[in-house]
Amino acid sequence: MTARAPSLDRPAPLAGFHAATRDWFTHAFPSSTPVQDAAWASIAAGQHTLVIAPTGSGKTLAAFLHAIDQLFAQRDAQQQRPAQ
């Protein structure tokens, strides 16, 4: 997988994330890395994703942020279900 420059017809890298995830990330980091942008797009598309890049490029956070984001989404889905 090669990192590509953002294009105007592609959504922002964090656009698909839960609001809580986006807020945390934007307060913790100045921006995402090209490695993260490419990984998030691939992971969000449901593709098996192998990320190979130098140390410090954001690989680990790319994988774990998406997993943590799914926990927020599941929590919200459970809270929105009507009580039985």
Automatic annotation (TrEMBL):
Pfam families, alphabetized: DEAD (PF00270)
InterPro entries on file: ATP-dep_Helicase, DEAD/DEAH_box_helicase_dom, P-loop_NTPase
GO-annotated molecular function: ATP binding; ATP hydrolysis activity; DNA binding
All residue ranges annotated as the DEAD/DEAH-box helicase domain in the record: 33-77
Name of the protein: DEAD/DEAH-box helicase domain-containing protein
Source organism (scientific name): Stenotrophomonas maltophilia (Pseudomonas maltophilia)
